[in-house]
Specification:
The chain has 369 residues and is an alpha+beta fold. It folds into two domains: 227 residues, Multidrug efflux transporter AcrB transmembrane fold; 74 residues, 2-Layer Sandwich (Alpha-Beta Plaits). It has eleven helices and six strands. Belongs to the SecD/SecF family. SecF subfamily.
Length: 369
């Protein structure tokens, strides 16, 4: 841990760094590939929308059922003629979801299920969700997401500038696309809990992005008055200065979510945890990635198109080229007038001046007269 803390301090001071901005084309390519995969998954498989979004019936059995999940799914499919989703709850009861059936059909399905499960029909609890109510929930979720995006963009444009707002918006769309694509590929059910988890991770993703943007804004004040660094180099320093902090906060947030997803939902079989835990896990990881590899490099791309910053880049490179030429030692093995000859490495460190050949020659020792 002390080594990690020392690494973070050295990154913050700029003693060591990784060129995130300089290699941005690699990160853009990786993100485009992942995004295309997610879109293909959405187009081919689609989302497994929960009963809250498409309507249907939910049946809950008494506790300590001896019937397995697979057997209950078979009974529900045969009784309804629709594909069902069965989950085993923590108290041993079964939750059976059947989408696309109305009130009249649910009564018939309830009688058939009770018979197959060897239960009194009165002990089989039934809850109905109308399709219009489910559609209303879906529309409200999309409206909430759109309002969230608009407000975030306006806030970032006011607090920072429009280029940072655009970069943050692109990173958010990137995170949403990847998360929904993973849901399509894995086949997990999309429920209101999924929407809650999605909105939560978007806020977390923005947190990391805003931290880097704030550091970048502070370090680029009066940037055109100096000729040491380009905008992209300062942006890279901002990422490196907050890198360990972003990694630490992301890992700490991922650990409990991983416990919910892999232990609670996978090992213990609490399937109701999957809908929210998967969106949190994928979204947190994607948000940390986008804040480091997408948002800030994109800001650097947009900013370096400005005429003032283009001129700054030219001045910085010209000064470095001039400094390199001045440091070239006299008598370097380059042919006269050959501009393509490779310059010899600059001399680093103190130079030993040659002693005068006639110094002290013929001088008697002792005090001068």
């Amino acid at each position: 841990m002390s080594k990690l803390g020392n690494l973070g301090a050295r990154l913050h001071r700029g003693e060591i760094s990784y060129d995130f901005v300089g290699k941005r084309k690699i990160w853009y390519g990786i993100s485009i590939l992942i995004t295309i995969t997610a879109i293909v998954g959405l187009a081919v498989r689609g989302l497994n929308m929960g009963i809250e979004f498409q309507g249907g019936a939910v049946f809950t059995t008494p506790t300590k059922m001896s019937t397995s999940v697979a057997q209950a799914e078979k009974y529900a499919d045969e009784a309804s003629g629709h594909q069902s989703v069965v989950q085993k709850l923590g108290n041993g009861s079964l939750r059976i979801q059947i989408a696309g059936i109305d009130t009249a059909q649910s009564d018939k399905v309830k009688q058939e299920l009770a018979k197959d499960l060897k239960l009194d029909p009165e002990k089989l609890a039934a809850d109905l969700v109308g399709p219009s109510w489910g559609e209303q929930i879906a529309n409200k979720a999309w409206e909430g997401l759109a309002i969230f995006m608009v407000l975030v963009t306006i806030y970032l444009a006011i607090a920072f500038e429009w280029r940072m707002a655009v970069a943050a918006l692109v990173a958010l769309i990137h995170d949403i696309t990847i998360t929904t694509g993973i849901y399509a590929l894995v086949g997990f059910e999309v429920t209101p809990g999924t929407v809650i988890g999605l909105l939560t991770i978007l806020g977390y993703s923005l947190y990391d992005t805003v931290v880097v943007f704030d550091s970048l804004k502070e370090q680029t004040k009066d940037i055109t008055k100096q000729t040491r660094f380009t905008y992209g180099e300062i942006a890279n320093r901002s990422i490196n200065g907050t890198l360990v902090r972003s990694i630490n906060t992301t890992v700490v947030a991922l650990l409990p979510v991983a416990g919910l997803l892999f232990i609670g939902g996978g090992f213990l079989g609490a399937g109701t945890l999957n809908d929210i835990s998967l969106s949190l896990f994928v979204g947190l990881a994607a948000g940390a990635y986008s804040s480091i590899f997408i948002a800030t490099p994109l800001v650097a791309d947009l900013k370096e198109r400005e005429p003032a910053l283009k001129a700054l880049t030219k001045r910085v490179l010209a000064k470095r080229a001039q400094a390199g030429a001045e440091e070239e030692p006299v008598g370097a093995p380059a042919a006269a007038g050959d501009d393509t000859a490779e310059a010899a490495p600059a001399v680093v460190g103190p130079r030993n001046q040659p002693a005068s050949r006639g110094r002290g020659r013929g001088r008697t020792s002792g005090k001068r007269r």
